[in-house]
What does this fold into?
Amino acid sequence: MTGTPEQRPGTRSPARPPHKTLRRRRTRPNLPAGAASLLWLVIIALPLYVLLATTLQSRDAYFDRGPLSVPTDPTLDNYRRVLDSSFFTYLLNTAVVTVACVAIVLVLGVCVGYAVVRARGRGAQRIFQMFLLGLAIPAQAVIIPVFLLITKLQLYDSLLAVILPTAAFALPVSVLILAGSMRDIDEELYESMALDGAGPTRILLRLVVPMSRSGISTAAVYTALQAWNGFLFPLILTQSPESRVLTLGLYDYVGEFRVDVPALLAAVVLSIVPIFAVYLFARRQLVDGLMGAGGR
It folds into this structure.
């Protein structure tokens, strides 16, 4: 019997190509996912709208119309008031604290992570466990011993009093991230450099640091966020306006009987712009480093 397979009795029609089925499935709209995404967008966009819209209103207009009102007469007076105050002093102090904390954490964290990964004795693993123990200790639980220690060292009311404890509490997470990133380096690369006569310092600088850039970037961004947004240590360990950081500078707009909400939120917007730019620049390295924090 002649004819095509479709014409022969008892024969099955050929199956549809898989790519057509996949293409048809992809064209179907996912209404629940779209509704959930729209709801999530509203949840995120509403606070941002309130934040930005409030900064463009005067204090009287804000209290008369409410936070959700559209600014009918937008003004930049709130930003001018913030910039004319001690904002740049607070910004400089915060930048010094952040850069110093990042430098301390990266130098110590890279060395500790390298020692934990390459050392074969139990001592390095015990040190690593001690650093991991620091993850379970909140700063609020040890603020009184830290205050007494800073006072005994005669560092009270200085930027160094904020830098040292902030870097200490950011170090455990950074060591965990860096050690996990260094474990991903192939053992053959270590052995090849050792056969070439490279010492531990050269291996660290020529091999480990270049191949751990994602982990180093993650530790740097994490430490910068912690230092930039720190509030407890500056509040307890500093007192004078010359040592004040941005988080404490927001108190300038909070009085005993009133709060200048538009100026306060304008200061918040200006304070988050630098650290938000850093996050946008290194967000991919941050995600990659956190994914490899557990090691192999």
